[in-house]
Every structure is written in C-alpha cells, then in structure tokens.
Amino acid sequence: MRSMLLMGTALTVLLAGPAQAQQIPKAVMQLHQRLITLDSHLDTPASLDLPGWSIEKEHDFHGDYTQVDLPRMKKGGLDGGFWAIYTPQGPLTQEGFRKARDFAIMRGVSIREMVASDPVNFQLALEAKDAASIAAARKRIVYMSIENSYPLGEDVSLLKTFYDMGVRVSGFAHFAHNQFADSSTDPSKKPRYGGLSPLGKELLKEMNRLGVVPDASHSSDQVLDDLLTLSTTPVLLTHSGCKAIYDHPRNIDDDHLRALAARGGVIQMNAYGGYLRASKPNPQRQEALKALNGPMREDVRLTAEKRAELLAKRQEIDRLYPETDRPDFDDFMAHMLHALKVAGADHVGIGLDWDGGGGVVGMEDVVDIPRITAALLNAGYGESDIQKIWSGNVLRVLAAAETAKGK
Which of 19, 8, 4 has its CA nearest to residue 72? Predict the structure, then answer.
C-alpha cells in the first residue's frame, strides 16, 4: 500500500498520537529477539530519498511521520524484510512507462546504496537461506520487492533487470488497473480484464522462470484466482487483511484464504487502519489533507526547505483536526487471529505496511512490533509457530520459487 508520504512530493496520511513504546515482559522480549523477524512490505525506501533523512539516525514518528530506521529496528527487534520499490500508477503510455521505469530503477539504486554505505549493519539477501546467516551476523536483512509492476511497461523481460538488482517478490497492480492486471480498488469499480491481462500472464511466466514470488496484494480477487491456477509456485499476499473481519476490496474472503493455503501460499497481515475497520468520517481533516497533498509526483524531489514547510502544515492539520477514531492494535490482531484460524499457522505472516500507511494506535512504528509476539503467545501459539509467522512462511515461499525457477 502507499499512502501519501513525505517522499518525492507526497505526504503521508498517517495519524499522530502519543509516542510511547509498549511495555513487554522480559521473557517475551527475549523470545522475540531469538526469532528471525521479517516484514514483507517495507515502504521505507522512499524515506531514503528525503532531504536530510538518514536510515542511521533515530527519527520520531510524531515529528516526521517515518516509522522505520536502524535504531528503531534494533529497539523493536526487526531483523529486516522486503524493501519495496513502489511506483504510483500513471498513464498507460510509452512516456508514462519510461518515467516509471527510470523512477523504479533509481529507487532500487537507493536501496542498494543503503546497503553499500553501511555493510556493518545491512546486507542484501538474494536467497531464502541468506536470512539466517545475515541475522546471525547481527545485520539487517534486505530483500527487495516491487509494488506495482507498472514500470515494466509492455516488456516483461525488463523484470530480469530488477531481478539482477535483487528483486525477489513482485506485485502486479496497485490502486488502479494497469497493463498487467485488475486492481481491487480501481476508481471505475469495474474489472478491465477479469483478472490477469494476457500480458500479465506473460509476466507471471517470467516471474516463475526467474524465481520471483508473485504478490497478489492490491490486485483483484480474480487476479488471485488466476495466480492460484497458473503459477507454478506458491503465491504471497505481502500486505493484506481478512474480509470476514472488515469487508473491504483490499481484503480477501475465507474461501480465498483456504485456496491460498491449499496451494502453499501465505497471507502477510497488514496494519493499514483503513483496511482494518470502518472509522468515523472526519471530512474537515480529509479536505485539509487533500489540499495539502495535491497531485502526487514522485519524479520531483523535495528540497529540505519545502519538506520542512509541508511537515509544519501537516502537523497543523493534526492539531486542528485530530483523528479520534483510529483503529488500534486489537483491530489488527482480529485480522491476524482470523487468518490463523482459517488458513493455519503455516500460511500467515506479517507485512505491516510501514512507511506506506500502516500503523495503529498501540503500534505506531517498528519499535512496537514485540506486541505481536506477545499477543500470539497469549493466543496460545508456541515459539515454533510464531517463528513461522514472523519469517518461516515467507522464506518457505521464496525457497519454493527458487527451486522451481527455470522449469
């Protein structure tokens, strides 16, 4: 997911609240630190290009609205995850494809530069087995992913360029239909292809050939049906929720959860409040945010002065029109526990959508993720299952894609 975050010229719709880490019992924190913890959808790469922002320094969510940096990863015990190359949906034209391609490549370069500039703390991961050795070396694990394949244009062979850069997971669509697939949230509310387009089916073949995991998040239910039927490897939903808990197009129903599990796939639970439950309307806030955001143009870089100006305006909106009905940690866990009940502990993981709209009351940034481990323990899950939920399941899917590639 991508809400409008202060990266490029965009602004986040994340909401301010009390900045306080949750108290976790020592024994639970020790267990949490033993686990390999991966989040399958980090939008944090966009923060890397913000003027004056550094992944090395600890930031305050209520100061600049970012949620992940190295000090906070260490505090929260997050070993790493899949760092997303996100590109907003643009026009389906050759010029649109060209601009998106160039932007996506440069965003991938930013991720690689983050790793190269601090080899003591970060390491690129290319295979499922890499996670364990990187974590053992006390470094942060950097897998790469694509959110929205729009930048590939009409040339599916371009995926090889991103694969060579390090991409191992790729989604198809985002907020709107594109050349590859129907989106679950297209403004038209009507399907374009009824699932994958013919070009999308070619892209899936290329993913399977290369060993790139297909990601169905943001795509329509019919796209998921096509992926479950056509993919030679299990399918991932990198950041999604349960329709039985909240009936939203971005969430999936129980029948699809069961079908996903039957094919070895995994749903990674997101913490994007708008997909967890309905909230009371706040029209003044929404209008103010809309006026502040304006058109999203990721091809224009912010100056430090402009970013400071936008942050000040955003903080004023929070002061004048505070959110009073935000989803909270219990809302997130309702989706998590339902998915576990329906699909089982072998088919559920975590993709909280940090720096892309994720975060709830009680889990505002990555510092608070040990709460998930504590809640799973309280729900009766043991260390083995919790390890699968935190990383084992997503790594199994990645390993299956590696094994099947080229066949």
Answer: 19
CA–CA dist 178, 183 (Å, integer): 8
pLDDT in tens, 136-170: 999 999 999 999 999 999 999 999 999 999 999 99
Burial environment of residue 32 by CB neighbours within 10 A (0 to 12, 13 to 18, 19 or more): buried
Q: Is residue 244 pLDDT above 90, yes or no?
A: yes
Cross-strand pairs, 190: none
Q: Output the CA–CA distances (angstroms, integers) from residue 364 to 57, 115, 327, in the order listed.
A: 18, 25, 11
Higher per-residue confidence, 6 vs 394: 394
162 C-beta neighbours (distance < 10 Å), count:
24
Identify the CA nearest to 102 among candidates 148, 51, 150, 151.
Answer: 151
Q: How many angstroms separate the Cα of 380 from the Cα of each of 27, 257, 265, 341? A: 16, 21, 23, 12
| pLDDT exceeds cutoff 90 at 22 | no
Q: Based on C-alpha coordinates, what's the Rg of the chain?
A: 19
Which of 236, 125, 120, 225 is closest to 171 using CA atoms? 236
Distance CA 285, CA 67 (A): 22
pLDDT band for position 406 (cuts 50, 70, 90): confident
Which of 263-267, 280-284, 356-360 has the lowest average pLDDT? 280-284
